[in-house]
Backbone:
C-alpha cells in the first residue's frame, strides 16, 4: 500500500501538474472512442498496450473478459456496454483476451472449482459455449496448445454474445458498430486480431497497410509510457503465430475446421 | 482505431523490447498485491494514478465501481473478487470512486433510466443503499454538492457490500484483509481515502507521515508514466476538500451525521 | 372440448389404424431431422405448412417464437434446444415467425402490458433487441408496415440469440449446423427465408432451383394433409414481397440499411 | 431441408388455394378454443391426434410438457399461458404427456445430465415434484412401468403447477376454466384423461356418453388428415389400460394410494 | 430494549427453572407436530392463539404469510418447508392469515409501493394470484370488506402454492399431509378454517364436535399463558362470520362464486 | 391438530376475554418496537424468552435465522425487513441464533444436502460466509464445539448481511438503528449478545447494570407466561460461557482471532 501511496504522490506532484489542463477539460465530461473489454489480470494494462491517454478508453474488466449473453447476468457488464454505446455513443468495441489466462485455465477444469471457488464456477458458465466447443472439437490437444485455442475461441464466443445486446444489434444494423477480438501474448507483447471473414486471428497492423505513413501523433493526452520510439520492424515468426506453437499446430488451431458441408 | 493500432505498434517497438524480461517473467504467472475496483470511466487510469507497473494491480471495472452484495448478482464482480482473494492471495482492496461519475448521476434520476437504459437501471439497483441514504438524508442538497456526497456515500456502501463475500469475511476474521475506499477528483488529481473510525474521507498521504523519507522506488515494472519528479508540496485548499465546495459545506458532507443517540 | 374428443375418436378409428406400423416403429424412439421453433399462435400449423409427417419435426412453440439468449431464461426453450441438438443430433433449425403476430404487436406497445399482462411483458424482454432496433431505425413506419418489419427483424434477432447456445456454437464450428429464419404470411400462405449474405428475406424455393425435378415423395409418414396436388405455379407479385406492401416500401424494409461505412 | 421445401411448395400449391378463404379470414385474428400444452417430441402432432384445423389450438411445446410454477421460470410458458387466457379468452387447457418421453427418462436419471446436458438438467427441476413423488412412492418399479407412472404423475404435477398462475386461479374461481390432463400412447394411439375425482386416468370418450350421436362435423378448417372414417369400435384391453402393463400393475399405478387417513 | 432484557431476566429466573427438565430434553432435538406459517405481524402470537408449548410448532413468519410457488423464490420459505416435512416428518401445515394485514393492504395498492418499498413490491408478486382474483372478481367491494376477502382468498392462494412443493406433493400422494388455511380476527380472537369441499371458511371447532368431552391436557410444555379456564361458550353472530360484515355480505364473500358452468 | 383446536378454544374462552381491550385496540394497527429475526425451530419461542406481549415483536422466522444480503434473495426476508423499518419505523433488530440448530448442522455437511434437500442446500448458500469462515479458521474443531462456533459466527455474518439493506444503511447513517446478535442456549435458557467492539458474545444483562432497580413492569399485554417471579441470581460458570465448553476453548471461540496486523 505504501508503494501505491508513493505512486499517488508522484502522480500528483509530476504527471498531474504537467497535464492539468487536460484533466480540467475532462472534468466536464468524457468522450472516449473505444469500449475496451479485457481481463482483470494484473499483466494486462490496456493504456500501455495501446499507448492510449486519459479519456481514450472506456473499460470493462472482469475475470476472463467475458460478455454474458444479453439478459443472462445482472452484473456490471451489460450496464457498462449499454452506457458506452447509448450514452457515450461509442462505436468501436475491443474484446481482448490474453495468454496464460487463469479464467481459461479454470474453464478447462471447471468441475474442480465448484466447491472451492463457487463464484468463479458460476461466472464461467457464461463461457460454456467456449468450454463445450473445446471439449467437443479439440479433445486431442493439451497443455499450452489447449489453453491457447481456448483463449482464442473464447474471444470469438464473447463476440457472439455481444451481438445479442439491444444497443449493439441496433448499431450493427446501422453499420455503425465495429467489434474487434484481440489476443494479447504476454510473453511476446504481440497482439492478434480476429478476422470474421477467414475465421482466423491475424496481426492487426496488416489492416494499416493502406494507411499513409503519417507520424505517430496522439490527439489527446500524452501516451502513458513515453519512451523514445525505437525503429524496430517486428518480425513475426511463421506468419504472425504465437512463437510457442509450431507452424502446423498453430495453423490448425487458428483456422478452425474448414471442412464440413452445409445442407 | 487507427490511433490504437499505431499505439500498439509503438508499444511493441519501444516499451516492450525495453521491458522484455519483465514480461517474460510475468508470462509464468501474476502476483499482484492489490485488487483495484473502479469505474469504467475513461478518465480513470489506475496505473497512472498510482504509478503502478505491469503486474501490480488486479482490476475490476464497471459502471459506478459497484460491488453487488454477495449472491445478488451473477456478473463478473463476485468471481473476480473470489479469484483475487482466494486464488491470488491478495489482501488489500481499493474501491475507487470518482467525481463527475455518470453512474452516480444516473442514480440520482433513476426512474428516468428505466426505459431508456434498462440495463443501467437494473445495475444501479445494487447502489440502492446509496440512493436511499441520499434521498432520506441529503434532500437539501443539489447539483455538484449532491453528486459529490453521492459519490462518497456510494464508496462506503460498496465497502459494506464487499464485507458480505465469504472470502472477504474469512480474511477479515484473520485480520488479513484491508479495504480502502478512495475518491478521485478528476479536476484536481486529488485522492481522498475513507477512514472508518471517523467516518470521514481524508488525504491518504497522512497515513504516510510515519514513513521514513525514502526515495520513490518502484519494485517491479517502471511506472507507466516516467516523467521526471517535480518537488512540489501539494497545498490542499481548506483541509483537503474538493475545491468546488465551501469549507462548511464540505465539512458537513464528509463528516456524516454525528449527532443522534443509540438506544 | 366435445369437438376435440370427436376428433380424437376419428383419429383413433381412421388415421391410426391406417398408419399403425409407423406409430409402432416410432414408439421405440424418434429421429427427427429438424428443430422447428415457432409461435404458439393457433394459425400456425408446422406440419401443415411443411406437409411433414409424424416424427419429422421436433417443435418448440412459445409466444413470439423467441429464443432467449443462452443463460437468460430458465424456461423450456434452452432445454429443448439442447436436447434436440445434443441428444437427437438434429443439425437443422428453423425459426418461423408469422404475420399478424400478437406477441410482436405487444412488443410495439410494451409499456402498456406491464400491469395487465406482466408475464408477457417480462417474456418480451427477450425480444428487446428487436424492439430497440425498430424504435431506433424505423420510427417513420407504422401500422402493418411497422408490424411486418418487426416480425422480420425479430426472426433475425432470434437467430443471433440462438448462436449463443453452447451446443449450437459447437456445431456451427464444425459446419454441422444450419439455421433458417422463416416468415409465414397467413393471408397468402407464403413463406420467406432469411438470407444472411444479403440480409434479405427471400422465397426459399429459389434454393431448390438446382434440385433435380424429382417427384414429391414423403419418406416417412404420409403428409398430414393429403389433398391431391394442384399444378399451380404461384406468381409472386413484385419479387416475392408481401402483397400488402408496396414494392418500394417492401424493398426498403427487407433489405435493411445497406449504406453506412465500417471503420 | 429439401423435403420440407417440397412440402411447403406442396402446401402452397394444393392445400392453401383450397382453403384460401379460411386463411384470409384468420389473417385478421385468431379465436382458438383450447390451449394445448405438450412435449416437443416429434411423434406428437396435436392437430393430428385431435383432428383439429387451422386456428383451433393455441400451442405450447417444450421438453416434457412442463408448466413451471408461477414465478419460477422466465421462459415462454408463463407468457403464453397468460396470453391464451387473458388476451384470447381461452377457457380450456389440455396438458398432454406421452409414452416413451425422453424428458421423463431424463428425470429418472437426473444426476447424470448435470454436466452433459446442463440446460435439460436445470429445466427438469420444474418436474422435481414428479421426481420426488416417484422416488419416494414407486421405488419398487422399474423399466417401462416406472416410466409410465412417471409420465402419468408428471401430468398431474403440471396441473397443480398450472393452478398457481394468476389468470388461471381467477378463472377457476369463476368456474370458467377447465384443465385436462392427457396421456398419449404412441404405440396404440390411445389417449387417457385424468379424472381428479378418482385420481385415475380414464378414456376421455366416456365423457361423451351423454352426447347425442351427431355426425363428426368440423366447424372450422377441414381436419388436417381427412382419411375416410372407418367404423371401428376400439376395444380397450382390461379397462383402457396401456397394453404393456398387466391389469394388476396398471391398476395399482393409475389409482394412486387410496389408503391412508387424514387427521 | 431494556424491557426485553428485563423480560429475558424474568424468563431465566422464573419460567426456565420451573421447566428446566423440558428444555434439557428438547436440547437433544425437536419433534414438532405442526408447521405453522403466518405473518410477521406483531399482533399474531401463534403459541398464544393455540396455547402451544415450547417444541410444538415449527414456524415460518414473513410479511403476508406467503408461500411462493416452488422454485419461484430463493428465500427461506422453501427451505423451511422442506426441512419441516422431510427432516422433521411434520404432516400438518397451518397457513394463518389475519385481519388488518399490512401486506394485504399493500397488495390492494401495489403500484404505489414500487419505488417506496421495492422489496415489499417484489415480494407481493408472489400474491399476484390473490391480487388478480380480487381485481377481476370483487371490483364492487371496498374498504374493510375488500380487505377481508383479500385476506381470505390469499390464504387459499397460498394453499395452492404450497401444493407445488415436491415434499408436499409426495406426502399428499400418500395421504400423509393435511393443509389447513386459517384466518385470525384480531378484534374478536376468532379463527376460521378453510373447508376445501365447500370453498368456505368455517369455525374449526365444529370439527371437534365428535370429540369426546375430555379435559384440556397439554402433552408437552405448559401452555404459555396459563390463565384459569373460563367456561364461556362463544356465541358466533350470524353463523361464525366476522362481526363487521353483514350476514349477506359475508355470505357472498366466503362462499365464492357458485354459479358458472363447466364445459 | 385436536390439541391445537383445544388450545384455540382455550385461548378464546380464557385469554382473549381477559385481554379483549388490548386486542380491540391493536386491531387498528400495530406499533412494535423490535424486529426479531430467529430460526423456525420449534424450541425457540421469542415471546417466552423475552416475556413480550401481543404487539411487541415483529417477527421473521426461517431455517437458520438467515438474512440474505440485499438483492440476493426474493423471499420474504427483505420485504419484512423493509416493512419493519420503513413502514413501522422500528429501530431495533435482534438476530437470534440458538444451540443445536439443524440448519447450522446442515451447513457443516452441506454437500450431502444437495440431492436430498435441495431447497435447504440452496438456502444455506446465504450462509456461505459462515461456512467458509469456519472451514478456513476452525478446522481443528469438531462436534459440539464446532457447532457452537458455527452458530455464533453465523449470527455475526447475518449482522453484516443486514447492513447491506438500504433501509438499514440509511437508519444506521442517522444513528437510529441498533442491531443485536443473540445466541440462545436451549439447555440453559441463557442468552448471549454480540459485542462488536470486543468481537465477543456477552451476557446482555451487563448492559443493564446502570439501570435503576425498578420492578419488572410490562407496558403492554401481560407477558405470555406469568409465573411468579423467583429471586434467583443466575450464576454464570466461567464468565457466561456455554457450560459444555471449557473456559479455554470458549475463550478462544468467542474472542475471534485477536492477533494479526493490518497493513
Residues:
Amino acid at each position: 500500500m505504501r508503494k501505491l501511496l508513493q505512486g499517488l504522490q508522484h502522480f500528483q506532484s509530476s504527471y498531474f501538474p504537467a497535464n492539468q489542463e487536460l484533466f480540467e477539460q475532462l472534468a466536464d465530461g468524457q468522450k472516449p472512442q473505444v469500449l475496451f473489454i479485457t481481463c482483470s489480470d494484473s499483466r494486462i494494462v490496456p493504456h500501455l498496450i495501446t499507448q492510449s491517454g486519459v479519456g481514450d478508453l472506456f473499460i470493462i474488466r472482469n475475470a476472463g473478459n467475458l460478455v454474458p449473453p444479453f439478459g443472462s447476468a445482472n452484473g456490471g457488464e451489460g450496464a457498462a456496454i449499454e452506457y458506452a454505446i447509448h450514452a457515450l455513443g461509442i462505436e468501436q468495441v475491443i474484446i481482448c483476451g490474453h495468454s496464460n489466462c487463469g479464467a481459461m485455465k479454470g474453464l478447462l477444469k471447471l468441475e474442480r472449482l465448484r466447491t472451492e471457488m463457487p463464484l468463479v464456477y458460476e461466472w464461467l458458465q457464461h463461457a460454456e459455449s467456449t468450454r463445450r466447443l473445446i471439449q467437443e472439437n479439440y479433445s486431442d490437444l493439451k497443455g499450452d496448445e489447449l489453453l491457447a485455442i481456448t483463449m482464442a475461441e473464447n474471444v470469438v464466443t464473447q463476440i457472439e454474445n455481444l451481438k445479442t445486446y439491444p444497443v449493439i444489434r441496433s448499431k450493427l444494423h446501422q453499420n455503425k458498430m465495429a467489434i474487434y477480438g484481440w489476443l494479447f501474448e504476454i510473453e511476446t507483447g504481440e497482439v492478434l486480431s480476429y478476422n470474421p471473414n477467414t475465421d482466423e486471428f491475424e496481426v492487426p497492423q496488416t489492416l494499416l497497410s493502406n494507411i499513409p505513413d503519417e507520424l505517430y501523433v496522439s490527439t489527446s493526452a500524452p501516451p502513458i509510457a513515453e519512451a523514445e520510439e525505437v525503429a524496430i520492424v517486428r518480425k513475426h515468426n511463421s506468419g504472425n503465430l504465437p512463437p510457442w506453437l509450431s507452424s502446423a499446430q498453430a495453423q490448425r488451431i487458428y483456422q478452425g475446421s474448414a471442412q464440413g458441408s452445409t445442407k
In short: Chains A and E do not touch (no CB pair under 8 Å). Chain A is about 40% helix and 15% strand. Chain A has a mean pLDDT of 83. The first strand of chain A starts at residue 34 and ends at 39.
